[in-house]
Every structure is written in structure tokens, then in C-alpha cells.
Design goal:
- This protein is of the alpha+beta class.
- It has one domain.
- It contains four helices and seven strands.
- The strands form two sheets. The chain has a five-stranded antiparallel sheet with strand order 1-2-3-5-4, sandwiched between helices. Strands 6-7 form a two-stranded parallel sheet.
- The protein is globular.
- The termini are far apart.
Length: 141
């Protein structure tokens, strides 16, 4: 029996991306934006509110989301992954799939008709978010 890794790191539009399990075991997606490339942090945070991604941007912080995996009860973050991505001087934005119309495995209050969001779905949404972050960075130059 294979155990699914609770996170995946990849690069899209030259930006580091993470998909990882959240506190309800749902998949979340994050994109790291280099602080030097985004310029004024408050302007970026404000612009992120308009990025189109599943459920809207629900995470907007300097803390790398990988730091939360252990707190969420997941293990398996490799030391190299954590160190390599935490030390990149990035600002992270992301989204979750724990909204009213998202089906969460084992959650007793799922609404009728709720949809289970797969890792593949969240990866595709993360790529969509990375595209928008890259466009924001490009518009600054």
C-alpha cells in the first residue's frame, strides 16, 4: 500500500508552487512571489484580492505554507524541501478547497451536491493562480 504524499512542489510560470493538504485534509494551492519582483507588498496584497482562483485568495502571507503541515497532522515534509523553499524570500498567496460547495472527506457537514476537489484540480487552479501572479510581476517591469 502506498501512502500519498501530503504535498507536492512544482514550478509554474517560473514561480514556486505548492499543493498540500489542509487542516480538514482538503487540498490547498499556493504560489510564491519573489518579494523583489512584486515591489510594494501592500499593492500586491490588494491586487491579489482580484485574482481568479477557486473560492478566491484565502492566504496572503510571508510564511511558507509548508510550515503548517505538521500542525495539520501530516508528516512527510522532507528537510530539503522545507529548507529550500522557506529560504527563498517569497510572499505566498493561495486558496483552499474547504468552501460550502466543496466535499471534504470525513467531514460530517458536507452540503448535498458538494464536489470533491482532487489534487489534480487544485494543481490546475494553482497554475492558473501562478499565471496571474506572473502577469502582475510582468506589468510592473
Amino acid at each position: 500500500m502506498t501512502t500519498e504524499q501530503p504535498y507536492k512542489l512544482f514550478v509554474s510560470h517560473e514561480l514556486p508552487c505548492i499543493v498540500m493538504r489542509g487542516p480538514l485534509n482538503q487540498w490547498n494551492g499556493y504560489v510564491g512571489a519573489p518579494l523583489a519582483a512584486i515591489g510594494d507588498l501592500e499593492s500586491f496584497r490588494y491586487a491579489a484580492d482580484d485574482f481568479r482562483v477557486h473560492g478566491g485568495v484565502t492566504y496572503n502571507d510571508e510564511i511558507c505554507p509548508l510550515a503548517f503541515l505538521e500542525a495539520f497532522g501530516h508528516t512527510g515534509v522532507t528537510y530539503n524541501d522545507a529548507i529550500n523553499i522557506v529560504n527563498l524570500n517569497l510572499h505566498w498567496i493561495g486558496f483552499d478547497t474547504a468552501h460550502a460547495r466543496d466535499y471534504i472527506e470525513g467531514y460530517p457537514y458536507n452540503l448535498p451536491g458538494a464536489v470533491k476537489r482532487t489534487r489534480e484540480y487544485v494543481e490546475a487552479q494553482t497554475v492558473k493562480l501562478a499565471e496571474q501572479v506572473a502577469a502582475f510581476i510582468l506589468a510592473r517591469t
